[in-house]
Design goal:
This protein is an alpha/beta fold. The chain contains 13 helices and 4 strands. Strand 1, helix 4 and strand 2 form a beta-alpha-beta unit.
């Protein structure tokens, strides 16, 4: 192998890369894998997979018409987390939740305002659908948040005795708005680049064996290093173009903020893509058939993401 590296010819390497580039242009599947498939996968992973719990359908039963209850209803209605549906009875709202039209129910009892005025503890009933535990937790957490906002307003307007309280200010690093797309899409790009890189090179050597051109290549003065590099360099450029396309799609179409060094992203993408291309080339060399190499590349690329 040392001799092969020592006798590396730039002229032969350029000729082999040129031959491989012609095969890429003549093979629509390579263009499809490099440019169409990444955008489709990123679109599906970015829009279909959404962990944000916005506009939760919340049933509201107001049995108390006092000022405190009215302000609590206004707090729920003003929250972007809820889509409030007023009900006439608890049975009506429960029927809607059983049919999946509501994610939770809040009941303001008839003695809500009177207990607050008397300085007693008021009770707010919250009913959630336990068949979807994650959504139920979201509903409970958002109701608790709206309740705390209402309590602050009550204390500020002196409708309730203002008592010293602990003020907690939350700050989320790297994703201040807590939008799931901002961390799902960058991870999806890594998954997409693993799949694309492995798929691109999983076919190149197997294709030479199936067409019977590998024997002709081995009969030429081409060294092993030149042959391997000629199979990697064109697909590396194609993969980096696909990465740039994914980056543009994520930043300018999906509004994912980009902070940091683009040079750092380029260097890390180079290392990451190189490993994916090497994996595909290894599978293509060992299996020698395009079908099995592609299947193995898909399996091996998906395993780290699972």
């Amino acid at each position: 192998m040392t001799k092969a590296v020592a006798t590396l010819s730039a002229r032969r390497l350029f000729a082999l890369c040129r031959k491989e580039s012609f095969q890429i242009v003549r093979d629509p599947s390579s263009i499809l894998i490099a440019f169409i498939l990444p955008v489709l996968l990123l679109f599906v992973l970015g829009y279909a997979v959404n962990l944000d719990a916005n506009h939760l359908r919340l049933g509201l039963l107001q049995q108390d018409q006092g000022a405190a209850a009215q302000r609590l209803v206004q707090t729920f209605s003003a929250s972007a987390a809820f889509e409030v549906h007023r009900g006439e009875s608890e049975a009506q709202l429960q029927a809607l939740m059983q049919h999946g039209k509501l994610r939770g129910i809040v009941v303001i009892p008839s003695d809500f305002s009177s207990k607050l005025s008397a300085g007693k503890g008021a009770v707010l009933q919250v009913i959630t659908d336990g068949s979807e535990p994650n959504t139920a937790q979201f509903v409970a957490a958002y109701v608790q948040g709206a309740w705390e906002v209402w309590l602050q307003g009550q204390a500020r307007d002196h409708l309730l005795p203002a008592t010293p309280s602990l003020s907690v200010k939350l700050r989320s690093w790297y994703n201040p708005s807590n939008i799931s797309r901002n961390f799902l899409v960058p991870g999806s790009i890594a998954v997409v680049m693993t799949i694309i890189g492995a798929l691109l090179t999983s076919l190149v050597v197997a294709r030479e064996w199936e067409r019977g051109t590998m024997e002709a290549l081995l009969a030429t003065p081409v060294t092993r290093a030149e042959l391997l590099l000629s199979k990697i360099i064109p697909y590396y450029l194609l993969g980096m173009a696909a990465m740039l396309l994914c980056w543009l799609f994520a930043v300018y179409v999906m509004d994912v903020p980009f902070r940091g060094s683009f040079l750092g992203l380029f260097i890390m993408s180079t290392l990451f893509l190189g490993s994916a291309l090497g994996l595909g080339l290894f599978l293509s060399t060992v299996l020698r058939t395009q079908f099995f190499a592609a299947q193995a590349a898909l399996t091996a690329a998906f395993l780290p993401a699972m």
